[in-house]
Amino acid sequence: MGSETYHEPTELLSEPTKEMHRALVSLIEELEAIDWYQQRAEASSDDHLRDILLHNRNEEIEHAMMTLEWIRRISGEFDVRMKQYLFTSGSIVEVEKEERTAAALDHVGAGAMVGASSTAGPCLGIGSLRGKE
Q1: Using an 8 Å Cβ cutoff, are 95 and 84 in contact?
Q2: Cβ neighbours of residue 20 closer than 8 Å, sequence gap 6 or more
Q3: Which residues have CB under 8 Å from 89's CB, separation 6+?
Q4: What is the mean pLDDT of the chain?
Q5: Confidence band of 2 (pLDDT split at 50, 70, 90)
Q6: How far is CA 31 from CA 45, 64, 83, in A?
Q7: Torsion region of 121: left, alpha or beta (phi above 0 gives left; psi -120 to 50 gives alpha)
Q8: CA pair distance 82, 84, nearest whole angstrom
Q9: Whole-structure pTM value
Q10: Which residue from 28, 73, 74, 116 lies 20 to 30 Å from 45 (Cα-Cα)?
Q11: How far apart are CA 9 and CA 2, in angstroms?
Q12: Domain coordinates of the chain in residue numbers?
């Protein structure tokens, strides 16, 4: 699996990046184990084995959430995004649309405050990568 190895020379990576890598790989492994236990439990015809497999799956969910919480505490961006999307109701996609609208309004407002147009300054949207504002 590609995620088990580093993609850049380790001597070029900081300790925080290496620690984050360890956490992300561990999270991937926990999520994979959850999937395996879920499938095995659903396929099992033995009620007692199914109970054990579901118990094991739930333990893996606990491990995954502990790792995810560590990631949230270490990474400001994860923290922001988790607060934005987790434990919300309604459409998850709408949360992003509302965020984009608010960001666009903030950008327009900031431009108006300095007397510039809303297209002033560098645009970091995908259009700017195509040479469009």
Answers
A1: yes
A2: 71, 74, 75
A3: none
A4: 85
A5: very low
A6: 24, 7, 21
A7: left
A8: 5
A9: 0.72
A10: 28
A11: 14
A12: 1-87, 91-133
